Amino acid sequence: MFFHHLQEEVPVAARPSRPTSTRARIVDQLRRGSLTAGALATRLGVTHNAVRLHLAALQREGLVREAGMQPTASRPATVYEIAPDAEAIYSRAYVPFVAELVRVLGERLSPPELDGVMHTVGRRIAHAQPRLHGDLAHRVSAASAVLEELGGLNTVERSGARYVIRGHGCLLSAASDGRPEVCRAMQSFLAELVDAPVRECCERGGRPRCCFEIDAPTSTRASA
Predict the structure, then answer these.
(1) 76-127 residue pLDDT tens
(2) DSSP H or E segment with residue 202
(3) Closest alpha carbon to 179 in 121, 220, 93
């Protein structure tokens, strides 16, 4: 949800290291410091109205916020800045940092200890999400949508009382590096979200893919 507005002219795979779309250039300027719409228009060589349209879209996405007013010769102008929580999405350090952290943990901890750490991580991340309501079908569908928001394209399959969330890639491939413990962090994450037993059945070949089987809780099956 945070990224599509930066891709209006250059697809993700082809985008160079320096942003080139107008909206991405606005973000680039605001990351360097707070500016008014007029100052942004001057720096980027575009119209004031065009900048204001992009700023409005960035505000809706939660990436930019108003930071106060600046006096001008005519009337005060709104100053814009990057929203504090948005800065993290532009960092490229998270993936290599997490991947190396998992490797070090794997060297320092026994397999059961590392497995326990990952289960705890998954549960804590889930607790930061809104609680899902409805029957199991609705909760699984909502959990699938949460994974999509995190970047994990997936489909939901059903066989009797069992559901399978099958990914079309791996959310944590750079960090997992074939380690099932990382997949079990996502297993615990989903189990907390859907409030039902979850078993990871991820593919760890040349192109890893997430896969999670979700069973109805025993009490639910018995009552059915």
Answers:
(1) 999 999 998 887 777 777 778 888 888 899 899 998 999 999 999 999 999 9
(2) none
(3) 121
Answer CATH for 94-223 from 3.40.50.1100, 2.60.40.1400, 3.30.1380.20, 3.40.190.10: 3.30.1380.20
- What CA–CA distance (Å, rounded) separates 36 from 106? 49
pLDDT digit string, tens, across residues 117-164: 999 999 999 998 999 999 999 999 999 999 998 888 999 999 888 999
- Per-residue pLDDT, 219: 56
Class of domain 4-90: mainly alpha
Banded pLDDT at 169 (limits 50, 70, 90): confident
DSSP assigned state of 131: P
Burial environment of residue 34 by CB neighbours within 10 A (0 to 12, 13 to 18, 19 or more): middle
Phi first, then psi, for residue 86 (nearest 5°) are: -85, -20
Alpha-carbon distances of 156 from 38, 89, 147, 196, rounded to whole Å: 48, 28, 11, 15
Domain residue ranges in the chain: 4-90, 94-223
Side chain identity at residue 20, one-letter code? T
Pick from 98, 132, 48, 137: nearest CA to 106: 98
Residue carrying the six token digits 């008014």:
36
Predicted confidence (pLDDT) per residue in 52-74, tens digit = 999 999 999 999 999 999 988 88
Q: What three-state secondary structure class fits 153?
A: coil
CA 4/CA 59 separation, integer angstroms: 14
The answer to whether 165 touches 211, Cβ cutoff 8 Å, is: yes
